[in-house]
Amino acid sequence: MDAPLLVLERLRKTYTRGIFRREVTFQVEADLAFPGPAIVGMMGPNGAGKTTLFEMMTGSNVPSAGRVLCAGKDIHTVKYRERDRLAIHYHQSYQVRRFRRRVPSALLQSAGSDYPMVHLFDEPQFNTQDGYIGFMLDFFRALRAEGRLVFVCLHPTAHFHLELLNEICERYVFVAGGRASEAPSLDALRADERFRAYLGDLAD
After folding, report:
1. Per-residue DSSP letters for 35-67?
2. Is residue 1 part of a domain?
3. Fewer CB in 10 Å around end: N or C, the chain?
4. How far is Cα 26 from Cα 202, in angstroms, rounded to an integer?
5. Residue 102 lies in a domain
6. What is the pLDDT of residues 20-40, one digit of tens each?
7. Taken in order 170, 171, 174, 175, is the CA torsion positive or negative?
8. How far apart are CA 172 and CA 157, in angstroms?
């Protein structure tokens, strides 16, 4: 049986400050599994930890606890130059996020993949005036048809953003209050008071 495409196993990132008395300034947690190809919509308030989760999922940010398993491999034990063969993070202008090297690459394992299994799009710029939307939606669908897992992270500022997510996404992840939670549909998310508070009138 093939391993799930992505597992966030009791994943947590915590930032603290202070020397003698440590104070938590930021924390985000996730315990989620994505067994097969899908297009997943991710939303949440600014500063909630969406990009931090993406960075941990691609191995560029070391978790405080837990593991990221991509196609059965702990991505933080994979050679640095091969991590983007498992999961790749495109940040806004589609610049690929880089990682910090903490362990000699010779001590790490091979990715065992030639092409990314997980594609993470961090706030792609959808503008109704530039004709780019159709191209990107087709690209997301093509990746999914090839057996890939696609995350589309948006901070909706207009109703059409939600319409786009509703059109292409099969699952949703909402990041708020220090935790990532899953919902099977946009309607299910709308039933969450935290989501309604986040989007305000857009949630209607």
Report:
1. -S-EEEEEE--TTSSHHHHHHHHTTSS--SEEE
2. no
3. N
4. 27
5. yes
6. 888 989 999 999 999 999 999
7. negative
8. 17
